[in-house]
Amino acid sequence: MSDDTLDIGASVPGWLMRIALTGVVAGGAWMLEPGIVWQIIALLLVLVGAVLPQTGAAWFAMVIVPFALIVQPADLWRACLAVFVVHLGHVLATMSLTMPARSQVALQALRPTAMRFIGVQGIAQLGAITAVLLPSADATGIAWLAPIGAAAVVGVAVLLLRHVRR
User: Quick check: 4 pLDDT over 80?
Assistant: First the structure.
């Protein structure tokens, strides 16, 4: 019998992704204030999604974040926060789905995901800023475009997943 060990360098426990997911989505729902009932629903759904990622409950919790933009007056910081929360929540939920909670995740392995996140965030935040600041006929901007953009992202994701499965 051998006493070999695998040295992966600096690492974090897999359960940390699930705690971060809960904090990001529940915190985003709390900060965007869609209403106390919606905040509680988001918290419960993200907790279920963190414990049982295969249920997809975390993604249902993230639906409440763009909903919060619809029920409140549009402003720049809320739109940018919603884009950040949904994107980071999606990344963390996906990682939670693929990494066992008892695993150790090498920080070096997280680097490509972090770099993609930063690149997409730069583009998405510019889109959010543009959507809120562009004037419309009633001078409120085009924040209504955010849910349409979210639906478009979901559509593209579904198409890409179908392509990957083939």
Answer: no
* CA 121 – CA 88 distance, rounded (Å): 9
Confidence of residue 135 (pLDDT cuts 50, 70, 90): low
Widest pairwise Cα distance in the chain:
76
Give me the residue spans of the domains in the chain: 11-161
> Tokens at residue 58, please?
């975390």
Residues of 124-146 as b/e, b for ≥16 C-beta within 10 angstroms?
beeebeebbeeeeeeeebebebb
Q: Give the burial class of 86: count Cβ atoms within 10 A of its Cβ; 0-12 exposed, 13-18 middle, 19 or more buried.
A: buried
pLDDT tens per residue, range 40-52: 999 999 999 999 9
